[in-house]
Amino acid sequence: MKATAISLFSIAWVSTALALPSQDLTKRSSVKGFDISHYQPNVDFTSAYAAGLRFVMIKATESTDYISPSFSDQYTGATNAGFIRGGYHFARPGSSSGSAQADYFLKNGGGWSNDSITLPGMLDLEVSDCDGLSTSDMVAWIRSFVDTYHSATERYPILYFSPSWWTQCTGDSEVFSEECPLDVASWGSEVGSIPGGWSTQTIWQYADSNPYGGDSDEFNGDEASLKKLASG
Ligand SMILES: *[C@@H]1O[C@H](CO)[C@@H](O)[C@H](O)[C@H]1NC(C)=O
After folding, report:
1. Where does the record locate the signal sequence feature (predicted)?
2. Is 115 noted as a catalytic residue in this protein?
3. 124 is annotated as an active-site residue
């Protein structure tokens, strides 16, 4: 452990001397967070914050007929404990249009405010069998959600998916990588390869558990960059 720390320091020092300092140093900092849903109705946000977690994504809605019964309490609890937080929407593309689901999400907790503690809303893309949509219909559905969210908030939503879901359900479309921040689900010790044209992830969901509930996430940058993501 000690040896690793020393060698990383040396590499960082060499990189600084080689004139690509900010890029290399940014990659070395990260902020831990987690994501939760109605399956975790009693999260101890104060302890989670004390343990070093700084952001949390909270499930707000699903399709156009489900609001998480825990969302409001979790959002308030996270806010009071000092978290940077945001809502997410579980996509059901086979049930209704992307714009209808974005509107529902916006009305029920998924909106964005420029208050420096609210992350742009996140679209959770993990429904099995692509909910019956073809890859082109799925890309059009996501486009409709993304554009509706952006018109309402001036922010592009974060897209969450696993590499296999994106490849299967969008045919590895690259049309969102310039706009939407990526939260990639890739459980293990490395992010691995990222589909869809993103050069890097914004958030990495690296484990499907967390001591404080839900899943474990890591923001790819330091706390100042996380705050920047919150304020656009
Ligand atoms: C949010 O507010 C900050 C500070 O006032 C400003 O710099 C930024 O452009 C705003 N973001 C958006 C997307 O309006």
Report:
1. 1-19
2. no
3. yes
